[in-house]
Known about the structure:
Layout: E1 2-3, E2 35-36, E3 50-55, E4 72-77, H1 78-85, E5 104-108, E6 114-118, E7 127-131, E8 135-138, H2 152-173, H3 176-183, H4 196-204, E9 206-212, E10 222-226, E11 234-235, E12 241-246, E13 251-256, E14 267-268, H5 277-284, H6 294-297, H7 301-326, H8 334-347, H9 353-368, H10 372-387
Parallel strand pairs: 4-8, 11-14
Antiparallel strand pairs: 1-2, 1-3, 3-4, 5-6, 7-13, 8-10, 9-10, 12-13
The structure holds S-adenosylmethionine.
S-adenosylmethionine binds near residues 113 and 292.
InterPro entries: SET_dom, SET_dom_sf, SET_domain_protein
Pfam families: SET (PF00856)
Keywords: Coiled coil
Amino acid sequence: MLNTWNLAPRQIKLPYGKVETPQPTGAFAPKKLSVREFSGGTVDYSENMIVFTTLPPMNLDATLDDEPNNWTECILAGPVKRRILSTPGFPRSVEKTAGGKVNHRVRASPFGGLGVFATRPIRTGDLIVAERPLLISPRGFEMRVESKGLTQAERIQVTMQEWEERLDVAVKRMTDENRKVFMALANSHTEDRSGPIQGIVRTNGYRVPGLYDGHEGDNTRAYTAVMNVMSRINHSCSPNTCHRFEMASLSFELRAIRDIRQGEELFYSYCDIFRTKIERAEELAPYGIVCACPACVGATKETDLLRSELAKRVEKIQADHHVWMKDQSRPNVLAASLKLIAEIEKEGLSGAPSFTSLLGMVANVYVESDNMNSAMKYLDQFNNHCRA
Ligand SMILES: C[S@@+](CC[C@H](N)C(=O)[O-])C[C@H]1O[C@@H](n2cnc3c(N)ncnc32)[C@H](O)[C@@H]1O
């Protein structure tokens, strides 16, 4: 299904919190959708078209027995659909946990609302869940440029109403089961004039890595995914999980970035955790979150500095390590690496790629020093972190 509404490159900064601007008058009603039907396998679209499509392509009489990995309802620019369909191996099966065992469950969280909890111990690097999104839609909202006579706030509202209509088309196309799960998700955007579906997308969306229109890194042309289990995971600035997206299976994988005890709540970070507490608070405000995670409650100048300077400190250790590898009469980086590893673990930042580098360097120093027991211990940790 195709909508000929042009994609414009101007992204709107969406309002959040309580919006008092009056609704625009009827004279500026949202533009009606102009839609054309195409067969599901069509890929020959022009760049300025938005495609409503179900992926993997679905037969009209299909049931979950035909596609146990479920379907994703998508709103995509034409060339993006082509890119997904031509990914080698698409549609690959979604990854399973070891032995197909379920290791998590959704239940009430002390943070309010629901959260996801480990139902058995989970080791660093282990898969927790892999799932296809219920919905993938553009992350940016493109401003209606032709709405003359409106204030900026009114133009934003008209554009938001138009987006709600487009999202509604996608939600109506979902299977009954998926629609029920989707509409039951949390919505923290009930007072900012987001429509009910847009509110769910804004509350629960994960940015889809590697999926974008045009150039990579162009934020206005990225996509967001809403999921069943993963959209129930709460935020922490010291997360215990990380995720990645695999285009060939059109799925997200969630893995542990440290050992997780049975009963522990699972968290990922909605913001850049390598920023100061104040900067993180600014990033989290649109989600309606005043973060009360231990890292925010216990934040100090030192923890802010650890986070913002971590990459630089690891780079320095890496440079020293290279020098030592060439000339082992010089001091090695063991003490500096172990000290930083301890600081990172205490602050709950062990998902940082630089943490994995430190583990590798420590293992390396032990190997060169013929201390194989210690080397194996750090190599083991290094490998688990690489899996994550
Ligand atoms: C993706 S949902 C997470 C699941 C949600 N708790 C639920 O009940 O379905 C995001 C919303 O959960 C709440 N939330 C997530 N992490 C939080 C935290 N650390 N502190 C307070 N609220 C949080 C906020 O309302 C946020 O908008």
